[in-house]
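User: What would this chain look like folded?
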Amino acid sequence: MDKSAPSTRTVSSTQTASLAKPLPSVQSVSNIQRDFISNHQKRKRMVIYIRVLILIVFFALWEFSARAGILDAFIFSSPTRILSCMLQMTSDGSLFYHTGITIAETIISFLLVTGIGLLVAILLWTKQSLSEILEPYLVVLNSLPKTALAPVLIVWLGNNIKTIIVAAVSVAVFGTILTIYTGFQSVDPEKIKLIYTFQGTRKDVLLKVILPSTVPLIISTMKVNIGLSLVGVIIGEFLAANAGLGYLIIYGSQVFKLDWVLMSILILCVLAGILYLITGRLEKRYGKLK
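Assistant: Here's the prediction, encoded as structure tokens.
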């Protein structure tokens, strides 16, 4: 009995030592994670700084070239002239009016594209024979240059906001239908079989498998559609508008007020970035909820 006691103590001490060994490694792993997070944050800040620096250098070179006579300020304008034009139009409220018209038309077009695209894709998935009939027509309409439809739309619908909305919807809706329908078709068939195994209906398959599985694809399509809707609205405003940023661009080019043209283009760039960030935040929020 006495001889066995030391061995027991030896085993227990060995076990204690083995349990104590992982502690430094855990601490080292946490340090590695901390260093990785710190380096990742530094890299993100560096990317932001470089982006801002490129923008500052671009505007500085533009302003310098216009003042030095390298670029014709009448044709290429300059940042200070654009800023002066923006302040003038802001003071009389016309800038907010034209920008608000374009934003409203873009949002309406975007909602219509998303809604119509999703509903038609569901209809095609529900009716397989209908999808086989319509798929070639959707491909052709998606490939058709939408600017070719604009003059026809003016004749059919008149010179009003309806023409602009329809032109914007036509730019993105056919691609949206094809993309979402293809996503429906690529859902794991084993999940669908599982629903049918438990006596589920086609409606259950749609609501519990198809739509939840394709939400990331739908959100990704929305990110693309918000830009396409803005492009479609500008195309429509070029041809059938008396207000909006597209109207300012086409009117400014006709009367050689190129400050208006470049100011409107810069505002469109900012709007496109803001709308893309909003849909990107929606995608991230869905990822967190998931």
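Residues 253 and 289 are 48 Å apart (CA to CA). If you want, I can go into more detail on any region.
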